[in-house]
Amino acid sequence: MNKLIYLTVIILISITTCNYCDDKQKSTNNNNKKSFNVKYFSKRKICTNIKTYYYYNPIQNTKEEFMKNFFKVSYYKSTDKIAIEASYKDMDTPVGLWFYYLDNGKKEKEVLYKDGKKVEESIFEYNIHNLLQSHTKYTYSSSKKLAFKSLYFYNYDENTKKRLLAKTENYNGAILDEYIVYEYNKEGYLSKRSIYLYNDLLKSYDIYNYKNNLLSKQEIYNKEDKIIAYITYQYDKNKNLIQKKQFEKKSRHFEPVKILFYKFNDKNTLMEKQEKIKIGNKYNTYTKKYSYDEMGCYQKPNK
Questions:
Q1: Distance CA 28, CA 35 (A)
Q2: What average pLDDT is seen over the chain?
Q3: If exposure means fewest CB atoms within 10 Å of the residue's CB, which of 48, 83, 239, 290 is most exposed?
Q4: What is the 8-class DSSP label of residue 200?
């Protein structure tokens, strides 16, 4: 009975979200000039360490019918925060990822365009505490529209006085695929993460161990409660992660199959990442060095 209620709720939420999405798109398009300040740019750069773009080379002559390969950024007039980030091949051909934000800065929607057509769309909704409540991803094809939805549930923790993620549910359309349950220690750190199938059967779980309030070891167990892998973490004196080593069970023994090394400068800025992956009986090594621009954003790693 409970599952039936859940499925009914999910169907209703999906329908509401879809209608909301269409109405919001129309509202945004109709009120661009009234609600937003709009600027055009010819270039942008991803600030990957804070996962945001910044734009430069503003376009002064905005005769849109002649513009090619440009970015249109809309800002809320009341706060000057970004409302919409849009990219175009020309004025009639949207390309790449578009981002929509609420006036509090929370991401509301992402839309991916390819060859001028919408191929993916993600909708984000939040609860009264501004915590993520649902993430619905739609994929489009010539024949059908598919929806994949994740719901997020939180509990209030009396020890930490925080709302901690307690459970996520992942749906394929209106059908529950799996759900994840999160448990915490008395300090409020994640101590166990369990994955269950739609029929409540345990799929796997992870146990998290801490030392000096830093994650030191993550153990991965299968449904038979047998450990199948684990990951160890090491830090420098400034609490920067400098090594992450993954072990997997091979026959009767655990062997390191992947090792990550991180190097930081005296300002705790990541400067180098080295990855060693075991293939057969030897390790292949990959090294990335990081450089930073005048905005303090690191650029694409130089191999």
A1: 9
A2: 86
A3: 239
A4: S
Cα(228)–Cα(245) distance, rounded to whole angstroms?
Answer: 14
Token code pair at residue 122: 């993600």
> Are 94 and 114 contacting, i.e. CB atoms less than 8 angstroms apart?
no
Locus of tokens 């509090």: 104
Instruction: Decide: helix, strand or coil at residue 300.
Output: coil
* pLDDT, tens digit, 9 for 90 and up, residues 24-70: 344 344 444 458 999 999 998 888 777 888 898 999 877 666 788 99
d(Cα 146, Cα 173) in Å, to the nearest integer? 7
Q: Are 53 and 97 in contact (CB under 8 A)?
A: no
Q: Residue 73, Cβ neighbours under 10 Å: how many?
A: 21
Cα-Cα-Cα-Cα dihedral of 193, 126, 28, 32, to 10°? -100
DSSP 116: T
pLDDT per residue as tens digits for the range 100-155: 999 999 999 999 999 899 999 999 999 999 999 999 999 998 767 889 999 999 99
> Which tokens in the block code for residue 133?
């409540």
pLDDT band for position 82 (50/70/90)?
very high
pLDDT reading at 21 higher than 60: no
CA 211-49-134 angle, to 5 degrees, is: 80
Residue 33: enclosing H or E segment and its boundaries?
helix 2-35
Q: Parallel, antiparallel, or unpaired: how do β-strands 214-222 and 227-235 relate? A: antiparallel
